[in-house]
Amino acid sequence: MVSRANKPDTQADIDLRSCLASTPPRSFIMKAGAGSGKTTSLIKALSSVVRMHGDKLRKFRQRIACITYTEIAAEEIWRDVGSDPLVHVSTIHSFMWLLAKPFQNDIRVWVSVRIAEKIAALEEKQATYGPRVQQRTKDKDARELERLRRQSGRIDAVKGFRYGTGSDYAKGILGHDDILKLVPHLIAERLLFRTLLARQFPFVFVDESQDTTTEVVEALKTVEREPGVSLCLGFFGDPMQRIYATGTGLVEAEPAWADIPKPENFRCSTKVLNLANAIRRDGDDLVQVPGQRLGPEGVVPPPEGSAHLFILPADDTRDANLARVRDWMAARTGDDQWRPGEDDQKRVKLLVIVHQMAARRLGFGDLYTALNSKAPSAFKDGFLDGSAWPISPFVKFLIPIATAHTNGRHLEVMRLVREYSPLLDKDSLVGVNVAERLKELADLIASIAAGLAGNSNVTIGDLLKQVNAGELLILDPRLVSYLDPNAPAAFQTEPEEGIGHDDDQEDDESDKEVASMDAFLACPASQLLAYQAYISERSPFWTQQGIKGAEFERVLVVLDDAESTHSQFSYEKYLGLKAPSDNDKKHIEAGEETTKDRTRRLFYVSCTRALKDLAVVLFTAEPERAEAHVRQLDFFEGEAIHTGAVFEAM
Fold first, then answer.
1. Strands (E), 544-609
2. How far apart are CA 297 and CA 225, in angstroms?
3. CA-CA distances (angstroms) from residue 245 to 25, 76, 188, 241?
4. φ, ψ at 616 (rounded to 5°)
5. Is there a cis peptide before residue 24, judged by omega within 30 degrees of 0?
6. Of all residues in the chain, what percent carry a pLDDT higher than 70?
7. How far is CA 385 from CA 20, 530, 543, 544, in A?
8. Is the dihedral of CA 566, 567, 572, 576 positive or negative?
9. Where are the domains of the chain?
10. I need a labelling partner for 367 at 20 to 30 A (CA). Which of 82, 278, 296, 573 fits?
11. Cβ partners under 8 Å of residue 515, min gap 6
């Protein structure tokens, strides 16, 4: 192993190595803030286990499991460990399926029970429909119930089960959500499963533990607590960097575990780090300190940098004011890279909550509206990173394969087909003319690519029906339920008359889903490419929710509640410019997470991306009132808080 494993130790690395050298090795929690080098500590831990326990692991054919939140993170860690065969690096879904795959009979029983539970839930829902439930929702539920009943009768005939992008139980395919429910169930119910997990992987390290589901965390703890089982369990994460609601946040250490804080920050300038600690002040007790940076001639002090706040009117001068901010920062810092240029996306990272401003400018306004405006919260959250089930098949497979086809990358096309599509599975080729199948496949991919092209008039619904009919991809069953050719396509985007839609009102999620899906399926398919460029970092805009782990010299963070329909976050509530809603008060009284809590974490993540200089722009209806209030919060230094008047002196 090379690279990060050879970097100087922090006290946290020393403490962690002591845990791994104990007999038996001691489980631990490492709480590491932004810029702390958490991944470096993880790599060091893997290196230490190989060095200390490698011979024993080889003797018993065991490995170290390192499970991460994303495939990108897994690839990064895999490169850093030098592809060591003793280390198994994968996403949480892939790891869970690796464990469950041999237990086919148990999977069959679990699937049967899961279908029965879904049927019972739908039947109960139908029996309790209120007067406001739309007919479209009733029709969709009826189709889904019929589909589940058909699947229930076919489970015994399934030869074996496998893991896919979407679930189709009758074909033996389990989806992402299934895996995260199946494995905790097997761990809880089967002693053999717990024992085999620990025997195969006596060390399990979980990266980005704050984003791991509570069910998975508790399941792994159950294995670690099993009498007679030796498992060293380690969690690396930071509760303050949890963005998505599905994550567990803080992982509590068991009584015998080590609780290892890593307070260093090796990334941010002094001014930015001071702001980060001010943001974190009301969130938890971790205070970050500058990490010791080494240069060719010894210790290098962190740059002083800058962190400025601009409080500006939320009106039609937004674009002009953002340009003024960049000019002002260029003049103040003596850094012309703040000014726009041909390589603008490399010069300044403009971080926004995914919102209308970015969507309209980049050309996916309809798509944004469909999956954000009055959409279920799961759609809004999953829209930020492409994980929402309506759009996931495009992000993971359809857009990449269309792009590869258009660019003549035939090997990449075949790789994607073999990874995601059932059309070339061994079982599906029995009795089939392979040459004809390949031609049909090529025609289908060419048609998808044409549908995504900028001059296409094809809708997203048209493309998905084509994909489903051609069985190019196993789609999520929730998505399939909207592709029934006999279902009426209302494509309504406005609420029914008489139904209120206040942000704090608990609307029927099913009705929201139906209206949102109608609008989504009616969107031009050509908008998907612009959306893909946005979430995959190929535009000047980055979502604040999608930049954990990234770092840039110059960062401009835009706080603009008026341009966002994402009710999960509100900077005006977080800063105290807007009163908490009745719903917020209910959550506060119940000791539950609030909009303010979520927004604090988002703000912390966004600001700590800056290596040197940071500009935060707050667009608000009353800049003068906001300025007076924000000065009392003691986040930014007094001379670093500005209104539009600062531009007059330029």
1. 552-559
2. 48
3. 32, 25, 24, 12
4. -110, 130
5. yes
6. 91
7. 35, 14, 9, 11
8. negative
9. 6-100+190-262, 104-177, 306-370+539-649, 373-531
10. 573
11. 374, 375, 492, 493, 495
CA distances in angstroms from 48 to 30, 203, 360, 385, 569, listed in the order given: 16, 12, 50, 34, 41
CA distances from 523 to 108, 291, 372, 463, 533 (A): 38, 48, 13, 11, 17
Q: d(Cα 628, Cα 382) in Å, to the nearest integer?
A: 36
- How many CB atoms lie under 10 A from the CB of residue 160? 10
User: What pLDDT, on the 0 to 100 scale, is given for residue 549?
Assistant: 65
Please say if the pLDDT value at position 503 is more than 50: no
How buried is residue 135: exposed, middle or buried, by Cβ count under 10 Å (0-12/13-18/19+)?
exposed
Is the confidence at residue 35, as pLDDT, over 60? yes
Tell whether the model's pLDDT for residue 495 goes beyond 60.
no
Higher pLDDT, 446 or 293: 446
Please tell me what DSSP assigns to residue 397: I
Architecture of domain 306-370+539-649: 3-Layer(aba) Sandwich (3.40)
Sequence letter at residue 598: R
Determine the Cα–Cα distance for residues 548 and 207; give it in Å rounded to an integer: 13
Instruction: Count the neighbouring beta carbons within 10 Å of the beta carbon of residue 12.
Output: 22
Which of 551, 643, 632, 506 is CA-nearest to residue 268?
551
What residues contact 334, with CB distance under 8 A and at least 6 apart? none
Nearest 5°: phi and psi at 433? Answer: -75, 110
d(CA 249, CA 104): 32
Hey, is 503 helix, strand or coil? coil
Q: Where are the beta strands (DSSP E) in 33-176?
A: 64-68, 87-91, 162-163, 173-174
Q: Can you tell me which residue has the tokens 């300190």? A: 289
* Max avg pLDDT among 184-198, 375-389, 473-487, 539-553: 184-198
Is the CB of residue 423 less than 8 Å from the CB of residue 445?
no
Kind of pairing between the strands at 293-295 and 232-237: unpaired
3-class state of residue 237 by DSSP: strand
- Per residue in 115-128, pLDDT (tens digit) is 999 999 999 999 99
Give the pLDDT confidence of 428-459 residue by residue, as tens digits.
888 889 899 999 999 999 999 999 986 668 99
Tally Cβ neighbours within 10 Å of residue 480. Answer: 18
**Partners of 541 in beta bridges:** 350
Fold of 6-100+190-262: Rossmann fold (3.40.50)
Decide if 405 contacts 446 (C-beta within 8 A): yes
Section 385-400 average pLDDT: 88
Tell me if 15 sits within 8 A of 258, measured CB to CB. yes
Predicted pLDDT at 502: 37
Q: In 3-state terms, the chain is what percent helix, strand and coil (to 5)?
A: 50, 15, 35
Is the pLDDT higher at 54 or at 362?
A: 54
What are the beta bridge partners of residue 524? 459
- Which pair of tokens denotes residue 629? 């209030």
